């Protein structure tokens, strides 16, 4: 039985004046704004897509990621529907599911690069204590000329293209194909297990045998890892528990939740209180907490000793000979932000 082609619609809209990408090329606004303002999300997605030449769009694959927060699933669906209507070959969609996904740009680049994709769209969080939940559309660390082009398009936008009847099953791994009106090729969406991709990369970077022995051998240390109900949870369980042998109770708050369990997933002494109290008891020799998308962390030593991020970087630098990747590839330098300490220098 032949499938009826999915219609491609052109929707009339009105431009917004506040959609200038900032902060690494992203649009960071309260989630309520995306929900309440008519076409606010489609407008920006169309501006982003229109900034790429149609010929380039037809030859690229878009990567879609998320930290799993509220509104993420709806946004992913809209982005995929608009990518189809705008001639993108096919997104490599990475859903907010229990399998985990590559939310931050680094893991997006990893997952996309492994599949021959060019990341065009992802989502990052904002955790300002007094602000409502934020939602960020990130085009990557774009140069000003790219951000300005997106902004100029957004100010004059009169219509956008979308396939509203296109429904992707974000919970099912594998490829899904859709026939679109006026399109010669089927539109493809691939749902991938980014945890597996990431794990395979880590195997080539670190000495898994040494780490496994540290966690399970005769002189093992007990660890406590808090994923703070962000999408790092599946990574923590799969890598530290399943692969490296840490007991299952070593990992807490590993189920990704849309509201992060009601607490800001900010890995610091103020919000990671459950981890802090557990570490203060002296039972565990190493503790860590991750933010929702896994690009920030906090490390605690025995009895709750706080390890400054600058110190942890310095410790890694001092023990490069223990990390196979650096032994093989060498080191080109170390990166840190302006306010950090001089531990790395020492």
Automatic annotation (TrEMBL):
Against Pfam families, the record matches this protein to: PGM_PMM_I, PGM_PMM_II
State the InterPro entries in the record: A-D-PHexomutase_a/b/a-I, A-D-PHexomutase_a/b/a-I/II/III, A-D-PHexomutase_a/b/a-II, Alpha-D-phosphohexomutase_SF, PGM
| Top-level taxon | Eukaryota
UniProt keyword Transmembrane helix, yes or no? no
SUPFAM superfamilies xrefs = Phosphoglucomutase, first 3 domains
Residue ranges occupied by any Alpha-D-phosphohexomutase alpha/beta/alpha domain in the UniProt entry: 23-89, 198-303
Give GO BP annotations, semicolon-separated.
Answer: carbohydrate metabolic process; myofibril assembly; striated muscle tissue development
**GO CC annotations?**
adherens junction; cell-substrate junction; cytosol; sarcolemma
- Which controlled-vocabulary keywords does the entry list? Phosphoprotein
Q: Name one GO molecular function term.
A: phosphoglucomutase activity
**Does Phosphoprotein appear among the keywords?**
yes
Write out the transmembrane intervals.
none
Give the family per the record: Belongs to the phosphohexose mutase family.
Name of the protein: PGM5 protein
| Protein source organism | Eolophus roseicapilla
Gene that specifies this protein:
Pgm5
């Amino acid at each position: 039985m032949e499938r009826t082609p999915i219609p491609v619609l052109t929707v009339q809209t009105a431009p917004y004046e506040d959609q200038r990408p900032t902060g690494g090329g992203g649009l960071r606004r309260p989630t309520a704004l995306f929900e309440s303002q008519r076409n606010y999300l489609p407008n920006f997605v169309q501006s982003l897509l229109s900034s790429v030449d149609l010929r380039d769009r037809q030859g690229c694959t878009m990567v879609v990621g998320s930290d799993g927060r509220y509104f993420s699933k709806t946004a992913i669906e809209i982005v995929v529907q608009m990518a189809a209507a705008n001639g993108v070959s096919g997104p490599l969609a990475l859903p907010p599911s229990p399998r985990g996904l590559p939310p931050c740009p680094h893991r997006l680049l990893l997952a996309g690069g492994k599949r021959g994709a060019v990341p065009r769209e992802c989502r990052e969080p904002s955790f300002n204590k007094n602000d409502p939940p934020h939602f960020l559309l990130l085009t990557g660390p774009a140069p000003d000329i790219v951000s300005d082009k997106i902004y100029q398009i957004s100010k004059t936008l009169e219509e956008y293209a979308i396939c509203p009847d296109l429904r992707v099953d974000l919970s099912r791994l594998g490829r899904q194909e859709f026939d679109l009106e006026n399109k010669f090729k089927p539109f493809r969406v691939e749902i991938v297990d980014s945890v597996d991709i990431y794990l395979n990369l880590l195997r080539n970077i670190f000495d898994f045998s040494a780490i496994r022995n540290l966690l399970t051998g005769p002189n093992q240390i007990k660890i406590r890892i808090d994923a703070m109900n962000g999408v790092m949870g599946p990574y923590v369980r799969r890598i530290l528990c399943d692969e490296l042998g840490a007991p299952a109770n070593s990992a807490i708050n590993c189920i990704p939740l849309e509201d992060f369990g009601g607490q800001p997933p900010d890995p610091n002494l103020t919000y990671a209180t459950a981890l802090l109290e557990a570490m203060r008891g002296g039972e565990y020799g190493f503790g860590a907490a991750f933010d929702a998308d896994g690009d920030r962390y906090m490390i605690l030593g025995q009895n709750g000793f706080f390890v400054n991020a600058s110190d942890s970087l310095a410790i890694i630098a001092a023990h490069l000979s223990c990390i196979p990747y650096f032994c093989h590839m060498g080191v080109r330098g170390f990166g840190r932000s302006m306010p950090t300490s001089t531990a790395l220098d020492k």
